Amino acid sequence: MFQLVTSANVACGFHAGDPVTMLDSCRAAYELDVTVGAHVGYRDMAGFGRRSLDMSFDELFGDVLYQLGALDGVAHAVGASVDFVKPHGALYDTLTDDAEQASALVAAVNAYDPGLPILGFPGSELLKQAKEAGHPVFTEAFADRAYFADGSLVPLSREDAILHDVDTIVERAVRLATKGEVVAIDGSVVTIQPDSLRLQGGSPGAVETAARIRAGLEAAGVGLESFA
């Protein structure tokens, strides 16, 4: 996968990952000139970070700070660096509209590195607060996730949340990159101007899908480089 992407969200040990996995990932990213992002999440290894947790400001602040420090330390040991932050799973969803948890994450990132870019969902509370705090902010779109007409994602609890037809995914990726739009589940067209295209790395056939997407983007004349 590292040979195909320009940026990689690396789990920091709370929802997935461990020191060896982080070392291997950061080493591969450095060798292949892939930008490393801290994929911070709730402390929920059993639930893969996909269960919402009611956390206080201090609890989430500390957990995000801990994850940033862990991955950044590992990255520096192999010559790499953490160049952006991207929340994972339920935390990502919560930060769409939860002002208190968004403020905790932004405060933690700001305490660690005031200039660290933050990647998130367009129009989210997270990106609003991150921008107000002076962080570079970037938006992403999902090539293999279904969208509602209002631009929100279809929840993973639904069977139609993830697309599986590779041809359709490639077509969507190219359309997002070249036209800034995606077709919602009701057939309407949603306008999105993403800085990054995200893939579900754990999906079956993810590497093959990524290869097809990259080939499709290159064939469409889309230049590929890290946003951060």
From TrEMBL:
InterPro entries: Glyco_hydro/deAcase_b/a-brl, LamB/YcsF/PxpA-like. This is UPF0271 protein. It comes from Arthrobacter liuii.
